[in-house]
Amino acid sequence: MILRSVTLQDFGVYAGTTTLDLVPRRRDGGAAPVILIGGRNGVGKTTLLDAVRLALYGRRALGSRVAQADYDNYLRARVNRASGRDGAAVTLEFDYAEAGTIHRYKIRREWVARGRSVVESLDLLKDGATINSVPREEWHSFLQELIPPGVSQLFFFDGEKISEIAEGSGDDEQLGEAIRSLLGIDLVGRLRVDLGLYIARHQKDDDSGATSRIEAVSRDMQVAERRTGLLEDEVAELVAQRESQARAAEQMRRQFVAEGGDAAVRRDQIELERGEVRRALTQLEHELRDIANKLLPFAMAPKLTAAFREALTGTGGGYDADVTASLIAAIESWRAEGAPAREAKWASAHWKDLESFVRAHSRPAGTSTACPAIREVGDGTTAIARLDEVESVVRPRAADLLQEMDRLTARGNALQASLDRADNASAGLLLDELQRAERRLGTTEATLHTRQEEWRVAKGQLVTLEREQKRLLSEQAGSEKAQQRSALAARAAQALADYEERLLAHKLSQLRNEFVRCFNRLARKENLVVDIEIDQVSFATTLIDRTGAGMAKGLLSAGEKQIYAIAMLWALARTSGRPLPMIIDTPLARLDSKHRAKLVERYFPNASHQVILLSTDTEIDEKLLEALEPSVSHSFRLDFDQIDGRTDVSPGYFGTESSAKEGHRALQQA
């Protein structure tokens, strides 16, 4: 199969008509399978993948169980708003080989929104002519049989699909479905069931009990499948409803907080805290006033305090009375004895003046030489000690008090502002609306939990019935009581059972070898995995490391899990032998540089005969583009026009110059 072109008309971000030529060319005599489409986030890369899926499968492109109303809403939302039209269309042209002959198919799916309804039309051409061999109402089924959706998801995938396989807890079940559908094993299983029903209807009368049990189990399975499907749909609806209600409740909660609702709910608590803040402020003010009435003024005048300290530490004038008496006695002795000798001749008046001078500088007996202020000041301390207390205690404490008062004042202002907001009249109404929204959300979550439990129980019952049916069919196929006309069918059923088991074992062996080869080609660590075990019943996988020990997938790094998913998809495609093209959307987002380089060098050029690679400029950068260039047939670049509200397609990739020769490969019409 070769995808030749995809045309989008007013679809998504593409206004007007946009056609991309997807046929790979040969370069320098060699294969160049990669068509590289580059664009930044939000410009329409995934829209191209969605267009291909939508053209092929219609409503089934959104999932196996999607309501018509949801599908109509999807189609209505995909119409480009900037085009001014109420409709859109996608067209896919591809070559498909049937019985050795290549036929060209063209699918055009168009829809128009008319009020609340959407009218959709489908045109299907084969080799230029409308298909008449299949009734028009069966075209959808014909396309699904031509390229089964379960198969296409392994060839047309994006980063979400890779993450689903890498991280999903239910990937064993998905792997089993993929293996059975992709490798054709599910057809054998359906044929066995049909043969079993045929045998059951033609059993002898004495074997009517086995027949009735098989038919009863088949009826129970149909009921269980319908119930499982209904519960699955209901769970999906409830999940969407819960998400919508959660968003509404969160929006209401933010509005409630903005209007002061949170403060209204906590009003008593806020008022209590404001009272505590005011009491603390009052206590600090009292303490500040107390030290202001004592030593704080000294801290406010450091220069004056320093001068005062100097005066306090100085001594008083004059001599003690005892010193004066001793000095006068010494002077009189000097006068009487003349020793030491005097050079001047002093008269009595000189000696009297000298004595008067000494007595004038003498203090009365009993007086101290220190300043009176240095004496004790009532509580046993001195003025000098009090001045020391100013520097070591009073000044730091005053600074701490002022800082704490500023903090409490700011907190008090904030609490008062919250109380002012709490007085907003609309907060009460918003509280009622918020409570109603939260009650609705809680009810939905409870219902969802109940339905999820019922869904799990129903799936378990269905699995049990399937096992019972398989057991009864196996017993019936080996029964010697089968009628003569059913003997061949019984032997065929038994042969099919053996064939299914051997075919599955053979295909799983091929898949194991392909996976190990693909994984080790892409993984950064050499020979990290030497084998993989895949259970034939549950399809649970266990990786085997180089020591022969089992290794759970959860032990891999995030990047290695991505490589695991890509390697599994690649191995499934190679094992199936189906020549289908690959469409890969942004596969490198969570990989490191070495893993990216290996994917570019080893995976993309070899994944298929046609690989349509949708990448951002940060995934396939200039260095990786150089490595990928020999395998690139041609490339396109998507750019979003903010003014016109549309995405433009031009030849080339980021940082490359396109030649005029490539100009015809991307056509756009307004």
Brief sketch in words of this structure:
The chain is α+β, with helices and mostly antiparallel strands.
Assign the structural class, choosing from mainly alpha, mainly beta, alpha/beta, alpha+beta, or little secondary structure. Answer: alpha+beta
DSSP helix fraction: 55-70%
- Characterize the largest beta sheet: strand count, sense, and whether it forms a barrel: 7 strands, antiparallel
Shape: elongated
How would you sum up this structure, described in words?
With 670 residues, the protein is of the alpha+beta class. Helices cover 55% and strands 16% of the residues. It has 20 helices and 18 strands. The chain has helices at 45-57, 68-77, 139-146, 149-152, 159-167, 171-182, 185-201, 208-258, 261-265, 267-292, 296-300, 302-313, 321-337, 348-360, 383-422, 426-477, 484-522, 558-576, 593-603, 622-628; strands at residues 2-11, 14-21, 26-27, 30-31, 34-39, 87-98, 101-114, 117-126, 129-130, 156-158, 531-534, 541-544, 550-551, 582-585, 611-615, 632-641, 646-651, 666-669. The strands form four sheets. Strands 9-8-7-6-1-2-18 form a seven-stranded antiparallel β-sheet. Strands 10-14-15-5-16-17 form a six-stranded mixed β-sheet. It has a three-stranded antiparallel β-sheet with strand order 11-12-13. Strand 6 and strand 7 (101-114) form a beta hairpin. Helix 7 (185-201) crosses helix 16 (426-477), helix 8 (208-258) packs antiparallel against helix 16 and helix 19 (593-603) packs parallel to helix 20. The protein is elongated and about 165 Å long.
